[in-house]
C-alpha cells in the first residue's frame, strides 16, 4: 500500500519543480492510498538514472506542514509517499529548454500569450493580441520586484527551498552538487533570507565549511525548528536549529537517516528510518534517538491519530518476522519492548500493505489467488472489505478517506489501463460502484495517475475521465458519483464566433493531470477559498485529445465554460482566489505575467523581470499577511539560480468593502439543491481590483433541502438499472440477515438504497429509501464456511492452526458450533460469538486430517469439511534397491523417509535416462530394466519446504552369482553408518578378495549394507563378452565362487582398517542368488521361498542379538491409547472408507528404545522433536 499519492490540500506554501526523471522500485503490494487533491497517483515504474538525463538542475520546495515528499537523485522516489519523510518535498528538475540562449532574445518580449497556436477542432484562429491592460492601454505594467542570484552555485544541480511564510520572513535554500558517479552530493550551500527573499546569506560557516548537507526538514507544528541532515558519504550527523536557521547545533548519529516523520502536534517528536530498515524515535527534536524496531518496511510507519489512539506517542508500523513474514505492530515510541508490543491484526499481512489514515486502517492479507482486504474503523476489530462479489480485484488503491467514507480505485480482473471507482459506507466496509473505466495517465516519472479530480471548496463535486468504447470523455458529478454528465462546451470561441458542439456527440474534455510539484500548476486548478472557479487545460470535440488544446475556465462550478487561452499556461490564484495569475509554460523564457480580476474574462499584462527568465517554479501566497510571490529560475542554462521576489500589492487599488461583493448560488444545471442543501457563496464582483483580506469568508448560508431520489445511491449488492431504480445483483441475496442478528433483536433491512455520505437533505423520500427496522427472524444456519486464518491448507507439526467458522445466514447467538479436528479431538461452542477470534489447535503428528464443522440449531443444521495437510521437515531419505538385478525382471525400489510422514510426502523418481520424473505419493515402486549395463536411479522427496534426494547405481545383467559376507566384530566399532564409509570399505574388501582369486576386478562388485552389524554382499558378474558361450561363463562364475568361499572359510581374506586393527571377512553360508537367471531351469519356487524364510529369520536374529536395527525396516511409534487420530490416504476417499488408527499397529516399547539408541549413535536427529521421544512424526 502507498501511504500517500499526490499532494495534499494543506500544502499551501510548498513549491516544487517537476522531476523529469525519477526512479522508484515498483510497490509489492496491490493497495495504495492517496490523499486529495486528485488526480491520484497509483503506482510507479522504475526508470534508469543517468547523468545525461539529470543534467538539468533539480529543485525541491518544502511545505509549511512538513509533509511534502523529498526525492534524492540516488533513489528519486516519486510516489512512495514518505520516502524522505515529513518535511520533504517532491524532488524536481528544471526541464531542458527548447528555446535559444538568452543572448538571442535581446530585449524582445518572448512568450506572450498573444502568440497564437493552432485552432481548436478546426475553429478559426483568434486575434493576435489577448487583452490589453486597463490602466496602460496596452503597455506592460511593471511590478515591484527584486532579483537575487545565488552566486557561486551555478554548478549545483539540486536545490531545496523552504518558506513557511506564516508570520515569518525567513526563506531557506539548500543547493547541492550531486555526483552521479559517486551517487552522493559532493558540495552544498545553505542560503537564508530574513526579508522575504530580497537578500540571502550563506550559512555554511555556521556548521563548518567542509560539511556537506543532504536534506532539510522543518517541524510542521513549529516552523522555527529546523533539522538538516549531512550526507552520509562524509559523516552521519544532524544539524538542529530552533531559531529558523540563524544558528545550528551538530549531533553525531550512529545510523544513516533515510526518512523522517514528525508528530502532528508534538513539535519535538520525530521518527527516523535508517538505511538498515531500523526505526528510531526522538522526543527531544533529534538530539537523542532510541531504537523502536528492526526490519520495518519502508514508509510503513505512522504516528498515532488524535482522538483515536489512546497514547499520543503510539507508533503504528509494519515489520518483518525472523521467518520472513510481515506483521502489523503498535507500541509506544520509547517503550517498544516485546512485552509492550501489540498486534492489532493477529495474522500475517502482505508486505507494504499497512495504511493508517484518518479514521481507517487498511491491510491486505496473503492469500493464494484472490486478494483479501481488511479495514478497521476507528480502531475497532478488522473486518473484511466487501466489494461486489465478482469484481475480483487485481489492484486496489485507497484514493481518499477524508469525507467520512472511503474512495477506492479498483482494477478488476478484465481491466488493463482503467480502474473502477468505488465508494464505501461510513465504516469503510461495503463498497458500491460510482464509475466504471476511469482512465489512467502515466506521468513523466513513470508514475500512474488516476484521471479523477475533486473540486476544492464544493463538497461532493468530482470530475473524471472515463474510457467509453475507444474514446475518453470527461464527466462531472455533484453528488459523489451518484449521477454523472458530460461538460457543455463554451458557446463561443475567443473571437466570439459560435461553436457548434451538441451533446452527447460533442462536449468539453479536460486534462486532469496535476503537477508532481504543487507550485507548478497542473492541467486543472481550483481553490477552496474561491468556490466555483475551475481553470483547466482541455479541448472541444467528441473525445479527449492532447493536440490543439486550450485553457478554459468556469465561474459557476462547471455548469458553463469559457475559453481564456489557446495554449497552455500555468495558472495560480492570488489573494485567496480573488485574482488569477497566468504564466506561459516554462519551455521558453518570459518576463511577463498576466492577471485577471474578472475570473478570466480580461487579462492585464505585468512585467516582473527586465530579462526573460526560464521559470522553474512560483511560490504564491506564502503567508496570510503579505502579498509576495517568488519566481525561481535561470536566465540561461549556465547561469546561477535566480530568485525574483515580487510584491503584487500594487495591482490592487484598495481593500474590499461590503459593496465590492455579490452572492452566488451553487447549482447543477439550474437545480439549487446540491448534496441535499442550498448553498449561497459570497464572491468579489468581477472587475473590482480590491483586496479580499484575511477575514474573507466564502460561505454565506446553507439550507437543507427536501430529500429526493438523487440524494440516494444504490446500497451494497444492488445495481442501478436503466429505469433508474436499484435492483439486487444476480449474486446477491437481499433476504440475507446478518449472523449477529439474534431472535428478539432488531436489524435494519435495506431497501436497496443508502443516503449519499455527507448529504444533508431531510424528510421527503427519506423514509421510503432508508433501511427499515425489523425483528430478527429465527432461521437455520446456511452457508457454513470453514477456513484457516492464514488461508492455507498446510501446517507444520506442533504449530498452532487457527480455524475460522462463519455462516452467511443463521442466528449466531443461538446456534451450536462443533469442530472435529480429525485427530480424535473435537470442541463445541454454544454460539458463534465464542469463535470470533478463531479456534486454535496444534497437531502432534503429520498426516492429512479431515476437519469438520457443524452448525446446528432447532430449525436445522449445516456442515462443511476442510482437509488439512500437517507436515514436518524431512531429515533423511535413503534409497533401497538391489545392487544387481536381472534384465527384464521387475524389481522393487523403496525410499525410506525419516521421520515417517504418512501420505504427506511427494516422491520424484528419476529412472535411467528418462527426461521426466515418475511422481508418486507412495515410497515404493516397481520397475523393469530392459537393457544390460549400469543404471542410475535418483529419488527426490518433497515435504513441507524441504527437498532431499538419494541416488543409487544398479548393475543390470542376464545372470550373476552372489555371496553374503560378514566381518569380525571389531569392524562395527568403527562403522559410522554413512554412505561414504560404506563405499570406501567396499573398495578395501574388493581389493582383499582379488588377492585370493584370479578374477577381473571390473566383474567383481562389493556392496556394504547400511546398519550394524556390518554386512556386505559380493557379486560376481559375467564377462561382457560372452562369445565363448553362456555355459562356460556360468561355470567360470561357479569356479570363482568356490575359490572365494574356500578362502573365506580358511580366514584368508582380511584387511587392515587402521594400524593395529585387522578385520577378517567371513562367508555367512547363505547365498541370495546361487546363480540367478531369467530362465526357469534356475528358479524353483520352493527354493526361493526357503531362502526368503531363512533370510528373514537371519534378519530378526541380527536385530535382537545385537540390539540394533537395520534402518530400512519401517519404524512404528508408541501410541497413546487414550485417543486415536484419523488419517486419510487421499482427499478423494469416501465416507465409507475405514479409519486407520495407530492402535492397529504393533507397539513394542522395547523396539522403540532400541531404535532410538541406534539413531542417536548414528547421529540422525529429528527436527520435529523437542524431547527424546521416538524420532518420527506419528507420535501422538
UniProtKB/TrEMBL annotation:
Which keywords does this chain's UniProt record carry? Glycoprotein, Membrane, Repeat, Signal, Transmembrane, Transmembrane helix
- Asked if the keyword Isomerase belongs to this entry, the reply reads no
Membrane topology type, per the record? Single-pass type I membrane protein
Q: GO cellular component terms?
A: membrane
SUPFAM superfamilies cross-referenced by the UniProt entry: Oligoxyloglucan reducing end-specific cellobiohydrolase (SSF110296), PKD domain (SSF49299)
Q: Where are the transmembrane segments?
A: 1086-1104
Q: Check the record and name the Pfam families matching this protein.
A: PKD, Sortilin-Vps10, Sortilin_C
Q: Where in the cell is it found?
A: Membrane
Alphabetized InterPro entries for the sequence:
Ig-like_fold, PKD/Chitinase_dom, PKD_dom, PKD_dom_sf, Sortilin_C, Sortilin_N, VPS10, VPS10-sortilin
Q: What is its main location?
A: membrane
Q: Region labeled Disordered — which residues?
A: 104-123
Name of this chain's protein: PKD domain-containing protein
Amino acid at each position: 500500500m502507498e501511504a500517500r499519492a499526490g499532494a495534499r490540500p494543506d500544502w499551501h506554501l510548498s513549491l516544487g519543480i517537476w522531476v523529469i526523471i525519477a526512479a522508484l522500485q515498483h510497490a509489492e503490494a496491490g493497495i495504495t492510498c492517496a490523499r486529495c487533491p486528485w488526480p491520484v497517483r497509483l503506482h510507479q515504474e522504475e526508470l534508469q538514472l543517468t547523468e545525461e538525463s539529470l543534467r538539468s538542475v533539480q529543485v525541491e520546495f518544502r511545505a509549511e506542514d512538513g509533509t511534502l515528499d523529498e526525492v534524492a537523485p540516488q533513489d528519486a522516489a516519486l510516489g512512495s509517499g514518505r520516502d524522505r519523510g515529513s518535511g520533504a518535498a517532491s524532488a524536481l528538475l528544471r526541464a531542458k529548454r527548447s528555446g535559444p540562449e538568452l543572448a538571442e532574445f535581446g530585449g524582445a518580449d518572448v512568450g506572450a500569450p498573444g502568440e497564437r497556436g493552432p485552432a481548436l477542432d478546426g475553429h478559426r484562429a483568434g486575434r493576435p493580441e489577448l487583452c490589453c491592460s486597463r490602466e496602460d492601454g496596452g503597455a506592460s505594467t511593471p511590478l515591484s520586484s527584486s532579483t537575487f542570484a545565488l552566486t557561486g552555485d551555478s554548478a549545483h544541480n539540486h536545490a531545496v527551498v523552504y518558506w513557511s511564510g506564516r508570520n515569518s520572513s525567513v526563506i531557506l535554500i539548500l543547493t547541492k552538487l550531486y555526483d552521479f558517479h559517486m551517487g552522493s552530493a559532493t558540495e552544498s550551500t545553505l542560503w537564508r533570507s530574513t526579508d522575504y527573499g530580497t537578500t540571502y546569506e550563506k550559512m555554511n560557516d555556521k556548521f563548518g565549511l567542509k560539511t556537506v548537507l543532504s536534506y532539510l526538514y522543518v517541524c510542521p507544528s513549529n516552523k522555527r525548528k529546523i533539522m538538516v541532515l549531512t550526507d552520509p558519504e562524509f559523516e552521519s550527523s544532524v544539524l538542529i536549529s530552533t531559531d529558523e536557521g540563524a544558528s545550528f547545533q551538530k549531533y553525531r548519529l550512529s545510523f544513516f537517516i533515510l526518512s523522517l516523520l514528525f508528530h502532528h502536534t508534538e513539535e519535538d517528536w520525530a521518527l527516523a528510518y535508517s538505511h538498515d530498515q531500523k526505526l528510531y524515535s526522538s522526543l527531544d527534536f533529534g538530539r537523542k534517538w532510541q531504537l523502536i524496531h528492526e526490519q520495518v518496511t519502508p514508509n510503513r510507519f505512522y504516528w498515532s491519530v488524535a482522538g483515536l489512539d489512546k497514547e499520543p506517542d503510539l507508533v503504528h508500523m509494519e515489520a518483518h518476522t525472523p521467518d520472513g513474514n510481515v506483521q502489523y505492530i503498535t507500541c509506544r515510541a520509547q517503550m517498544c519492548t516485546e512485552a509492550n508490543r501489540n498486534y492489532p491484526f493477529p495474522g500475517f499481512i502482505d508486505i507494504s500493505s499497512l495504511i493508517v489514515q484518518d479514521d481507517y486502517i487498511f491491510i491486505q492479507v496473503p492469500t493464494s489467488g484472490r486478494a483479501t482486504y481488511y479495514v478497521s474503523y476507528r480502531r475497532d476489530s478488522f473486518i473484511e472489505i466487501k466489494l461486489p462479489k465478482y469484481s475480483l480485484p487485481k489492484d486496489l488503491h485507497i484514493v481518499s478517506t477524508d469525507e467520512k467514507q472511503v474512495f477506492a480505485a479498483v482494477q478488476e480482473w478484465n481491466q488493463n489501463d482503467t480502474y473502477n471507482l468505488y465508494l464505501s459506507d461510513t465504516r469503510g466496509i461495503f463498497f458500491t460502484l460510482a464509475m466504471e473505466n476511469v482512465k489512467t495517465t502515466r506521468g513523466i516519472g513513470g508514475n500512474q495517475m488516476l484521471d479523477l479530480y475533486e473540486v476544492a471548496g464544493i463538497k461532493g463535486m468530482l470530475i473524471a475521465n472515463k474510457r467509453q468504447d475507444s474514446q475518453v470523455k470527461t464527466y462531472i458529478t455533484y453528488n459523489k458519483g451518484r449521477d454523472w454528465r458530460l461538460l457543455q462546451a463554451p458557446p463561443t470561441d475567443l473571437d466570439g464566433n459560435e461553436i457548434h458542439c451538441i451533446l452527447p456527440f460533442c462536449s468539453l474534455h479536460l486534462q486532469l493531470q496535476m503537477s508532481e510539484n504543487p507550485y507548478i500548476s497542473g492541467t486543472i486548478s481550483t481553490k477552496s477559498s474561491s468556490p466555483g472557479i475551475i481553470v483547466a487545460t482541455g479541448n472541444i470535440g467528441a473525445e479527449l485529445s492532447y493536440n490543439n488544446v486550450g485553457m478554459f475556465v468556469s465561474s459557476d462550478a462547471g455548469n458553463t465554460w469559457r475559453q481564456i487561452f489557446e495554449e497552455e499556461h500555468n495558472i495560480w490564484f492570488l489573494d485567496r482566489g480573488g485574482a488569477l495569475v497566468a504564466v506561459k509554460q516554462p519551455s521558453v523564457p518570459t518576463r511577463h505575467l498576466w492577471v485577471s480580476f474578472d475570473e478570466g474574462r480580461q487579462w492585464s499584462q505585468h512585467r516582473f523581470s527586465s530579462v526573460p527568465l526560464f521559470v522553474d517554479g512560483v511560490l504564491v501566497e506564502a503567508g496570510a499577511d503579505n502579498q509576495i510571490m517568488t519566481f525561481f529560475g535561470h536566465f540561461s542554462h549556465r547561469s546561477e539560480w535566480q530568485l525574483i521576489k515580487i510584491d503584487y500589492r500594487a495591482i490592487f487599488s484598495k481593500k474590499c468593502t461590503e459593496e465590492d461583493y455579490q452572492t452566488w448560488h451553487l447549482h447543477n444545471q439550474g437545480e439549487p439543491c446540491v448534496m441535499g442543501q442550498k448553498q449561497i457563496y459570497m464572491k468579489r464582483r468581477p472587475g473590482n481590483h480590491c483586496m479580499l483580506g484575511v477575514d474573507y469568508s466564502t460561505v454565506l448560508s446553507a439550507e437543507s433541502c427536501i430529500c429526493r431520489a438523487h440524494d440516494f445511491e444504490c446500497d451494497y449488492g444492488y445495481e442501478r438499472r436503466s429505469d433508474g431504480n436499484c435492483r439486487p445483483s444476480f449474486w446477491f441475496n437481499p433476504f440475507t440477515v446478518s449472523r449477529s442478528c439474534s431472535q428478539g433483536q432488531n436489524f435494519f433491512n435495506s431497501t436497496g438504497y443508502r443516503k449519499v455520505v455527507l448529504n444533508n437533505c431531510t424528510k421527503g423520500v427519506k423514509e421510503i429509501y432508508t433501511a427499515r427496522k425489523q425483528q430478527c427472524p429465527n432461521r437455520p444456519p446456511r452457508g457454513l464456511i470453514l477456513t484457516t486464518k492464514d488461508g492455507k491448507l498446510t501446517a507444520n507439526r506442533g504449530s498452532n492452526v487457527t480455524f475460522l467458522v462463519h455462516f452467511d445466514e443463521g442466528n449466531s447467538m443461538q446456534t451450536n458450533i462443533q469442530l472435529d479436528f480429525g485427530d480424535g479431538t473435537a470442541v463445541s461452542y454454544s454460539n458463534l460469538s465464542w469463535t470470533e477470534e478463531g479456534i486454535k489447535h496444534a497437531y502432534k503428528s503429520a498426516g492429512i486430517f479431515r476437519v469438520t464443522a457443524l452448525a446446528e440449531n432447532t430449525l436445522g443444521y449445516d456442515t462443511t469439511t476442510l482437509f488439512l495437510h500437517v507436515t514436518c521437515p524431512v531429515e533423511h531419505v535413503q534409497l533401497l534397491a538391489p545392487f544387481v538385478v536381472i534384465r527384464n525382471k521387475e524389481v522393487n525400489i523403496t525410499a525410506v523417509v525419516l521421520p515417517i510422514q504418512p501420505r504427506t510426502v511427494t516422491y520424484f523418481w528419476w529412472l535411467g535416462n528418462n527426461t521426466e520424473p515418475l511422481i508418486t505419493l507412495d515410497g515404493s515402486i516397481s520397475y523393469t530394466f530392459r537393457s544390460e549395463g549400469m543404471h542410475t536411479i535418483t529419488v527426490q522427496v518433497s515435504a513441507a519446504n524441504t527437498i532431499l534426494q538419494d541416488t543409487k547405481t544398479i548393475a543390470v545383467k542376464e545372470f550373476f552369482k552372489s555371496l553374503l559376507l560378514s566381518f569380525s566384530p571389531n569392524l562395527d566399532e568403527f562403522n559410522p553408518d554413512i554412505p561414504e564409509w560404506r563405499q570406501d570399505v567396499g573398495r578395501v574388501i574388493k581389493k582383499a578378495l582379488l588377492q585370493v582369486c584370479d578374477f577381473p576386478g571390473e566383474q567383481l562388485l562389493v556392496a556394504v549394507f547400511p546398519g550394524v552389524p556390518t554386512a556386505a554382499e559380493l557379486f560376481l558378474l559375467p564377462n561382457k563378452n560372452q562369445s565363448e558361450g553362456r555355459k562356460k561363463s556360468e561355470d567360470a562364475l561357479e569356479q570363482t565362487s568356490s575359490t572365494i568361499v574356500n578362502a573365506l572359510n580358511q580366514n584368508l581374506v582380511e584387511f587392515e582398517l587402521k594400524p593395529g586393527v585387522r578385520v577378517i571377512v567371513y562367508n555367512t553360508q547363505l547365498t541370495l542368488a546361487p546363480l540367478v537367471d531369467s530362465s526357469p531351469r534356475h528358479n524353483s519356487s520352493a527354493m526361493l521361498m526357503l531362502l526368503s524364510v531363512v533370510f528373514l529369520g537371519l534378519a530378526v536374529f541380527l536385530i535382537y542379538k545385537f540390539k540394533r536395527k537395520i534402518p530400512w525396516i519401517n519404524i512404528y511409534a508408541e501410541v497413546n491409547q487414550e485417543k486415536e487420530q484419523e488419517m486419510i490416504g487421499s482427499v478423494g476417499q469416501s465416507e465409507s472408507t475405514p479409519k486407520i488408527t495407530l492402535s492397529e499397529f504393533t507397539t513394542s516399547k522395547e523396539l522403540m528404545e532400541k531404535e532410538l539408541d541406534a539413531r542417536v549413535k548414528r547421529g540422525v536427529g529429528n527436527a520435529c522433536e523437542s524431547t527424546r521421544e521416538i524420532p518420527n512424526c506419528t507420535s501422538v
